[in-house]
Amino acid sequence: QVQLVESGGGLVQVGGSLRLSCAASGRTFGSYVMAWFRQAPGEEREFVASISRGGLTTLYADSVKGRFTISRDNTKNTVYLQMNTLKLEDTAVYYCASRQTGLVSLREDEYEYWGQGTQVTVSS
Predict the structure, then answer these.
(1) What is the C-alpha separation between 120 and 5, in angstroms, rounded?
(2) Residue 54: burial class (beta carbons within 10 Å; 0-12, 13-18, 19+)
(3) For residues 79 and 53, what is the distance between their CA atoms, to the nearest angstrom?
(4) What is the Cα–Cα distance from 36 to 53, expressed in whole angstroms?
(5) Is 96 helix (H, G, I), strand (E, B) or coil?
(6) What gap in Å lies between CA 43 and CA 54, rounded to an integer?
(7) How far is CA 118 from CA 18, 67, 75, 85, 108, in A?
(8) In this predicted structure, what is the pLDDT of residue 26?
(9) How far apart are CA 116 and CA 70, in angstroms?
(10) Confidence band (pLDDT; 50, 70, 90) for 54?
(11) DSSP 32
């Protein structure tokens, strides 16, 4: 089992940047596919980005492609989400998720472990 703790959320203006971090417990972080999802008020949770165990393969939602970058440091048991050129519609609670089997995926039901989320608010 792995525990995930997100950090780095906050209030930022349109066009600004934030970097989210997700720290994982345990010694097997490198064996997990990691992902970020988000949930805006009144909306369903949606996929943002996913990264393979070694970090060589990534997958992005079309809405964030070219603006967000997912990365990981297996020596620090941490996955990151660099968010640039933020828009109002990026406002959401951002969740980190992991799966021990399979490949990068945008399917929420394929991820076994979830963090509690961190709030990102983009203001004008």
Answers:
(1) 15
(2) exposed
(3) 11
(4) 14
(5) strand
(6) 32
(7) 12, 19, 23, 19, 17
(8) 79
(9) 18
(10) very high
(11) S
